[in-house]
Amino acid sequence: MSDIEKMIGGDYAQLTNTNIRSFGWKGVTVTVKDRQTQQPKNILSDINGIVKSGELLALMGPSGSGKSTLLNVLAHRTAALNASVKSAIYVNGSAANPKTFRRISAYVEQEDALVGSLTVRETLNFAARLSLPRTVSKLERIQRIEALLTAFGLAGQANNLIGTAIRKGISGGQKRRVSVAAQLITSPKLLFLDEPTSGLDSAASFEVISFVKDIAKKHNLIVIASIHQPSTSTFAMFDKLLLLSQGGTAYSGPVAEVQPYFDACGFPIPLYMNPAEFIIDFVNTDFARDRSEVEQQLNMVHSSWHKSRLATSTVTELTDEMARNSMDTEINAELKEDRAGVFAIIMALTHRFFIKSYRDIIAYGIRIAMYMGLAVMMGTIWLRLNPTQGNIQSFINAIFFGGAFMSFMAVAYIPAFLEDRALFMKERANGLYGPTAFLVANFITGIPYLFLIACLFSVVAYWLSNFRPTADAFFTWIMWLFLDLIAAESLVVLVSSLIPIFVVALAGTAFANGLWMCTGGFLVPPQTLNPFWRYVFHYIDYQSYVFQGMMVNEFGHRNFACAKSDAAPSGCTCMYDTKLADQCLIEGSAVLENYGYKTGETGKWVGIMLGIICGYRLLGWVVLYLRRQ
Description:
It is found in: Membrane. Belongs to the ABC transporter superfamily. ABCG family. Eye pigment precursor importer (TC 3.A.1.204) subfamily. The chain crosses the membrane at residues 361-383, 395-418, 439-465, 477-495, 502-524, 605-626. The chain is an alpha/beta fold and 629 residues long. The chain has 2 domains: 3-335, Rossmann fold (3-Layer(aba) Sandwich); 342-626, no CATH class. 53% of the residues lie in helices and 12% in strands. It contains 24 helices and 14 strands. Helix 4 packs parallel to helix 6 (172-184).
């Protein structure tokens, strides 16, 4: 038996909580401005609670009761709430520090933050590489992954894909278990679950909560889950319930005492009825026929709670924990562990992006097919153009088409980037990494694919169209096309980061590309372009530098035959007057002069292109840094 097998066979001691005995909150109040009256409005009002190690708390209530808001406050995820928050949150009776709190807690989103083109084992592996500190060895990382696969009953699906829209993968319940397991890879002591059973049937919901309960009981973890109308069997697995209604507490205490409590309040739960279903319907005012009667009933529920023994015991427990006031030294020592290094995070993200890019054809596979179709179309439309003056305009048109439409078709990258961005926002909220690592990995991943696209397109379109047939001209064309694609993709990253809605991002990117086409110098030569458009947009238009570069590449070192004419003394008529006119040839430099382009400035243009690309990426970084949702 190998060392790894021996380690996996043992108990997963790293996950076991030995230091955090309680997690409590007192006086949680969240206030926003009412959109209509502009008056302060409480989403949550004076919410208290406490959960002990090894316990599962169900956070329940009808829609709009404040469940998600409370969960976000407790998990220190209030940046995107846009509200006034007053709260006192305690770990072992001491005030929780947001930075250290994140190291002992994990948050599982309502929607699975999973990459569909990865396998289950790969998903946990990347979660480990992104979150575990540098002190954790590769052997220990493998041990944690395999132990979690076994603990969550996923060993049999370890090599199966999560699943995409095109390729079917594991079931919904298994996906949710993978999401929870991916958060447990860092051995958190507190686990927050946002609607873990959303979208699952009763059997799958029971399966998910059952696995979470087993892990929590075995390893003494604290679990808080918002959940909407669970089945009777699922509800019974929770130890405690916090029931909210209109931002106030309707009940907080053991699940076992729910029925006796409501019976004592004069609202008995009917026999053989799901208690969870009854109490949610009971405190729900959205569909009431007699609203005043229901409001009165709800006020009685809130009043009964505040006068109840359970409300008093909750505050007493919190006070007792605060009196002990022992944020243990072991916890602080544990929190001194370093996080994963920046280089390691970038490498892990790049690796994950590469796997996704070649398995998920939406990212680059479809784009390669689109560009190859465009190359064949371009090559056969401008097929075998002869270097004659009658084809000069056709060559110019082909250059414009090759550069402008290649960049325009970069809009096909928007869906893939928005998917990556959504995953980034969720992982960023969990404190795994920031926009720098994300954008660097995104950039590195795109380079080989964009270079491949530039080469494949050029091999077909360049030679079929009969551009200048030399090796240096061909590779210079590839260089310009490659820079064009990088700039276009950088523009997509910027616009999609700023407006993360597919249709709007598509429209914004298409508009920007249309603007660059108009001011690039082909439709209207730069020297005759309206001063506003020229000085405001032309000089920052990456397509203009690509067009200039390709024009110089084609016309800077090539001559074109003049039209034959028996009436002319020289036997030909040249549309451009150059020093080679007596040889019935036109120097390509004359075409460049007509556009105001000069040779010998390729290096400067390349530098400007690199500056524009860096500018787009930097602006994209600023947008992602400032946006929290």
